[in-house]
Amino acid sequence: MSWTHAFLDRLVRGANPDGSWGYRPHTTGCSEPTALASLALAVHPAAQSSDALTVASRAGLNWLTDLQKHDGSVPVAHGLPSPHWPTAMAVLAWAGCDDADSLTKNEACTAAVRWLLNTRGLAIEHDAHTFGHDTTLQGWPWVADTHSWAEPTAMAIAALKKMGHSDHPRVREGCRLLLDRCLPNGGWNYGNTRVLANTLRPFPATTGIVLAALAGEPETDKTALRSRVDASVAYLTDALKRVRAPLSLAWGLIGLGTWDARPPESHDWLAECAERSRDEPGEVAHDALLLLADARWRPAGKCIGVSADG
Amino acid sequence: MADQQRPGKSLDGGVKISRREVLGAGGALLLGGGLAGAFRHRARSERGLKADVFIGRAVSYESDLPGLIQSGLAELGFDRPTVRGRRIVLKPNLVETALESPHINTHPAVVVAAAEVFRRWDAKQVLIAEGQGHRRDSQLVLDESGMGTALAEAGLSFVDLNHDEVKPIANTGGFTSMEKLYLPRALLEADLIVSMPKLKTHHWAGVTCAMKNLFGVMPGIVYGWPKNVLHREGIAQSILDINTTVQPSLAIVDGIVGMEGDGPIMGAAKQVGCLIMGRNLPAVDASATRVMQLNPYGIAYLKHASGLLGPIHEWNITQRGESIASVASKFDILDEPHLRAVATV
């Protein structure tokens, strides 16, 4: 059995009776692994013809809908009053699994988008001695009343773009924030470029997530999008040669794929990575992300702006 | 935002710890000298608290680390009966990785050596657990730090505390406005929690050692990457709350190669050649700070822990094994106003 079929099967077997997934199979349901697993079961080509996989995916989406609060936000899990950073991921799951017609009727998506547009990270008075980035730009935080960081900002932008809000001022500011947080030699970490004396290091996973979110961004003189994307693609392409950790490899390839810069060896890299955990219980989010990377999933849709490979 | 304060618990004598200044992005609590007077009266007495700290010399990671740790634990009152049947969580410091900077993280040899000793003494279970503050990808950190290979060879399991099941626990410290702390299941099920930090300077807190290392037990799915909630609440206050609530049993500090300068991730390697161990974390951190030839009273969380969570005055700490003087080595620290009290010995 190929790793993709084995992982699809493992995902279904790891679901909870209520339709959710925990970070590990049969643990307390959490919104992030549920969103990713639902998506993987819906979009992977090998899952298309299986009713069982479709049913499992739908059950996950319904669980997310049940978890959603009246204000549209989606918490990490039942019983956790905050934070609500998985809301963007829930939107990507709902939007990625539904057809366009039903999407417009999807109250859950609409409420979540409203919540995302009304949520912002804290702006801080800029102190150039301490921080290299523009602390006044507002994206999205992990937790309410904290600063904006790379991953939640990228996920929110991808979700809002997917729902047709590419031109919304919040999305525009969020993209400016992401470009401002790009490291001088390319790539992104959790969201600091320089702290006090030193420029910090990029991370493969965050770089992939941000590249995916920047899909379709137009080049302008102010953002220097092309040079930053090129540098980040170059960093990631080199870094992934040595990465066989599922989270980083999968997000890295998803990010490169968005810019049509996926290395030809990537298929083998995914198989090598999957093989590492094939005989273990597996991590749900990791399994799902590997499947999504294999399916060439593009969170914010296909890049229609500049392309890294010209 | 930067001046916003959240209620903090009155420690004693009406002294209230509140955030003085928060640099929310990356976070920093810069406690100035204003509280110094309120604590001076108990600086030496520390309410009668006493602790033992063991320092063992180990010139490299090829030294007999299990033997050294076992003799240190014996000096501190651990033996087979106190360990037998217990579930042990070893919590190393894994922040992020850079192939050229292995001194960022606790060395795998120290972690494996400690696990070996607890297994020799018939621990029911020994888990290695961490929730990195910067990198979300635990597997990549394990791969690049060498920890993954070392744990696999030793047959040890790793728990990713950032993505474990969580449970709310009453915040028994009350130094921050957080009424509850959400803690990982693996931690809550442990009988003995061992903080295993790297001996490092820290560009906000001054020094990061056994107490600060427990930031890593706070799950990222609740507190984010970085754990900016804790920065906003105040680094010192959060350290005190976590340590008060979690109640770690022991610290084993990797001081074989430490980090000086722009710690905890961008600093230079510093050869020291020792392990520092103790049951009381403020006492361990105070001794570790003295090994670095820095000032424990210049570190906000240690100053406030004094007499509450443990002793930090050298009169109240019995040094076992090597003396501090025999291993002490001056650590460079960034020349920043908020760190000058740490550098002033």
Could you give a short description of this structure?
The complex is a heterodimer of chains A (310) and B (345). Helix content of chain A is 49%, strand content 1%.
Describe the 3D structure.
The complex is a heterodimer of chains A (310) and B (345). Chain A has helices at 3-13, 31-43, 51-67, 87-97, 100-104, 107-117, 150-162, 169-180, 204-213, 225-239, 246-258, 266-276, 284-294, and strands spanning 194-195, 198-199. By secondary structure, chain A is mostly helical. In chain A, a hairpin with a 2-residue loop joins strand 1 (194-195) and strand 2. In chain A, helix 4 (87-97) runs antiparallel to helix 6, helix 4 (87-97) packs parallel to helix 7 (150-162) and helix 9 packs parallel to helix 11 (246-258). The longest helix of chain A has 17 residues, at 51-67. Chain B has a single domain, classed as 3-Layer(aba) Sandwich (Rossmann fold), CATH 3.40.50.11440. Helices cover 29% and strands 21% of the residues of chain B. In chain B, the strands form two sheets. In chain B, strands 1, 2, 3, 4, 7, 8, 9, 10, 11 and 12 form a ten-stranded mixed β-sheet that branches. Chain B has a two-stranded antiparallel sheet with strand order 5-6. Chain B is globular. Classes of the chains: A mainly alpha (310), B alpha/beta (345).
Task: Give the secondary structure arrangement, pairings included.
The complex is a heterodimer of chains A (310) and B (345).
Chain A: H1 3-13, H2 31-43, H3 51-67, H4 87-97, H5 100-104, H6 107-117, H7 150-162, H8 169-180, E1 194-195, E2 198-199, H9 204-213, H10 225-239, H11 246-258, H12 266-276, H13 284-294
Antiparallel strand pairs in A: 1-2
Helix pairs in contact in A: 1-13, 2-3, 2-4, 2-13, 4-6, 4-7, 7-8, 7-9, 9-10, 9-11, 11-12, 11-13, 12-13
Chain B: H1 36-40, E1 51-57, H2 65-75, H3 80-83, E2 87-92, H4 108-120, E3 125-130, H5 138-145, H6 147-154, E4 157-160, E5 166-170, E6 180-184, H7 185-188, E7 192-196, E8 198-202, E9 206-208, H8 220-223, H9 228-233, H10 235-246, E10 250-260, E11 268-278, H11 281-291, H12 300-305, E12 317-321, H13 324-327, H14 340-343
Helix pairs in contact in B: 2-4, 4-6
